[in-house]
Amino acid sequence: MDTTRCSRRSWLADAASLACAVACAGALHGAAFAADAPKGPVLLSVTGALTRPNDNGAASFDMAQLAALPQTSFSTTTPWYPQPRKFTGVLVRDLLDAVGSKAGTARAVALNDYRADLPVAELVKNGAMIAYLLDDQPMPVREKGPLVIIFPFSDRPELRNAVQYSRAVWQLRSLELR
Amino acid sequence: MNRNIGADSGSLPQRAWLFVMVGVLSAVVLAVAYVQWRQYKLLDTAAHFQNDALGWSFSQLETEQLRLTNEMQRYLADPQHRGVDKVQLRYDIFVSRISLVDHPRAAGIMQDQMAYQPAMAQVRAFIKQADVVLGQPPVEPLSPANAQQLLAHLDALNVPLHDLSLGASHLLYQRATDRNLAVRQQSELGVALTVFQVVLLIALAMVVLRQLRTLTERRINLEALAASLSAARQGAEAANRAKSAFLANMSHEIRTPFHGMLGMMSLLQDSGLAPKQAVYLDTARESAHHLLTILNDILDISQLESGKLQVSPQTVDLLQLVHQVDSLMRAQALAKGLALRVDVAPDVPRWVRADPTRVRQILFNLLSNALKFTSDGEVALLLTNGAPGHIDFAVLDSGIGMDEPTQARLFQRFMQGDERPSRRTSGTGLGLQISRDLARLMGGDIAVHSAPGQGSRFTVSLPLASVGAPALSAADSSQAADAAVVRPLRVLVAEDHAVNRAYLEAVLEKLGHRGRFVTDGHAAVEAVQSQPLAEMFDIVLMDLHMPDMDGFTAARTIRAMAAPRGRVPIVALTADAFQISRELARDAGMEGFLTKPAHLPQLREALQRYGSGVTAFAAADLTLDASAAPLDEPTVLLDMPTIQDVSQALTPRKYSELLGRFLDSRSVVVAELRQAAAVAAHADLRSAAHSLKGASASLGLCAVSAVAQRLQSSTPHAPTHELMQLLDELDTAFERSVAECVRSGLIDATGDATGDAGGDAGGVRPPAARAPA
Question: Would the CB atoms of B96 and A161 count as touching at under 8 Å?
Fold first, then answer.
């Protein structure tokens, strides 16, 4: 399971890198994130216990920066859509690697001030992803965007419970690492 | 057995029960699994679709509606400074919440809430209106005027959304309660099923236990049955062994009185019977002889069965053995008018290791059978070399032959080739079985080839090892004896009867010894006394009953002499085999004891044993040859084994001469006896009878010998007419013996004349024989 997912992830990462390389003419890639401050609107800001900030002690990401990180994509059913939907984004693990954090807990805060304290180890173990594309399209706020924490519920039936659903935060705005 | 059958019939429904129980148990397990699956699905669906979260979604929607209201009021309060984008964000968040409550599943859940559909329609209408200014993209920009309008609409949503929120909460409480109830019921059902399962399991265990117990019971029964069968078999075997032993003993026991009966019949025959009576008696005797053969067969079989019969191989002259068989069977063959051909292939070894008695018995059996089943033509005995180390004795006949089934049955006990009710032949049916058992005992076998009407061929194949001719006189062969003179002995023979003297002389001569003959005890004592010491006798053969001085006195007198004369070995020679005679002889100082007729082998052994100088005097007497017919058994006129032995020892010519001389003297002897009887000279009578008994026994005239024995043992006070009657019998015995001797070619027909008296027997007397009635 892990290996197939890994290979898929690396393939998607390659594809995303390629797309990025075409779009941004090689100006951005994963390794270049740390130094640069976000140029577009900030979608996600990560604060707290991290070692590679880019924005006043926090790590802020615009769409291009998220797309420059290792990409993951999977389809899954959710309680909120009648059909399985395809989600694309960055694994929590990859995001934490990018910001250089070994935090134990992440407080996810949504646009409507919804908050959930998430144990990082479990997020990583359960393959949690911060998705910014739904069916390859950016998500507007009306569609619970722009960011969603999503789990592979279809692949892992053990995740289909209220606790995990409550950790799938929509309209994610920021992560506070502790 | 009945118990087993019962267990069998009982186990069938039991097995059915077992199947039923296993079936029910499986069904219950499946039912429990189904209940649990249902429960799982119930809980899983509830969890997956976040149904429980619907209440939260409604209350979130209500909250967002209030927040949007609040934001719009702030905007209206200060349209210049308060940006449109904040209203826009709140609006978007509000819209994003609507999809969580406005979908078919939610409609399903809320179907009982009358307010749901109108409220949703109202919400959708508000969105449609709001989207004109806040949609993506907006049709026209947000202005305080249309914001005021929207706010009024939004306020109108307050009550329906709140009602829905409450209704959903209540509904969901109800649903949770219902679900809990269902889970409880299913759990109760699961528990009940599990209890049922346990009960069934216990029942199943009991059935299995019962089955096991039945099996154990059956095994124990079987073991008991096996044990009882084994015991029964052992009992049967023991009984069979006991029966065999009994049979062996009884046939032995029966034979003794049987011999007496045969003797009596023989005497009866000689007692002057009417012709009719003689015929009856003949028939009776034939039956008796047949019965005796059967008895012998049974004895052999029982001994073979009990393993008592053993073969004792010795060096045997095969040619001589065949010759003996030939001469004994020839008479039978001639009597039936059949030719008897005996052929020995030149490469068949002459000297072999074999048990002569048993080989002879087999050949007699087969030849008797062949003669029995052949009415004309010939019977042949052929000896050839068979398989390596084997000699084949083939007995062929031109008789009735046998078909295959008969041959297959042939060697079975009590089977006879001729099974017809009116069969022509008689016999025990044991002969062939005995023959085959004997052949097998010797390591060989018997095969038969035959076809109806084409005669039969029985082939006995025996592994007889070829050996060199014996160097010493150990074998019972005259030729061997001729060559086997160890050391010529000086033998003193004290014997009053001329025929015995002649016989012993011939024997001694044959054995290469030198004999000196005296006729009474006095002469014997004198001879020992007067013999020069350098030429002292090596042995004395002492007849016990002699005129003047008997053997006992003579022996005692000799023993009284000084050594070495007094130490000369003395062997008693007598016609009576009484134990008292043996003891008296031993008391008188005699070492050995020979019974007349003293056959060549016994004489040879006695001479070797006592005359060789190594005179370690054994207390044991020389054993009698078992084949020597007892003297009191006048079943036949002639004692063929003795005649065989004697004529072999002496050569047939000499025997014939001796026999002729003895028979010629019969009238004189009988006349002497009559005279003694007439004057009541009992001592003379008994002495003469004793002589006659010994001589006739030596020559194999057993009928004569038997009557002489009775004469000898008659009491001193026996009435004269009784003695005369015995003498008449003696006459008869003599005449019948003469006739028999002539018939079997032992003497010439001319010898039948009353003829000249024998040399020592005294003067010529007129014949006193009276013809039998």
Answer: no
B325: tokens are 């068989």
Question: In angstroms, what separates the C-alpha of A28 from chain B's closest C-alpha?
Answer: 30
ipTM of the complex in this document: 0.74
Phi-psi region of B138 (alpha: psi -120 to 50; beta: other; left: phi over 0): beta
Give residues with Cβ within 8 angstroms of A152, minimum separation 6.
A74, A76, A126, A127, A129, A159
Nearest chain A Cα distance for residue B218, angstroms: 56
Q: Which H or E element spans position B394? A: strand B391-397
- Which residue ranges make up each domain of chain A? 2-177
Across the interface, whether the CB atoms of B96 and A143 are under 8 A apart is answered yes
Cα separation, B270 vs B259, in Å, equals 17
Residues of A in contact with B64 (CB under 8 A): 112
Size of interface A-B (CB pairs under 8 A): 45
Q: Does B136 touch chain A (CB under 8 A)?
A: yes
Model confidence, pTM: 0.39
Is the distance from CB of A110 to CB of A170 less than 8 angstroms?
yes
Domain residue ranges of chain B, discontinuous segments joined by +: 51-156, 314-462, 478-611, 640-761
Phi, psi torsion values for B283, nearest 5 degrees: -60, -45
Q: Per the CB < 8 Å rule, is A171 touching B89? A: no
CATH number of B314-462: 3.30.565.10
CATH topology of domain A2-177: Sulfite Oxidase; Chain A, domain 2 (3.90.420)
pLDDT digits (tens, 9 = 90+) for B427-479: 556 788 888 888 998 899 999 888 888 888 999 999 988 887 765 443 344 44
Beta carbons of B89 and A141 less than 8 Å apart: yes
| CA distance linking residue A63 with residue A42, whole number of Å | 8
Cβ contact (<8 Å) for B96 and A82? Answer: no
Rounded Cα gap, residues B158 and B452, in angstroms? 132
Distance CA B350, CA B318 (A): 5
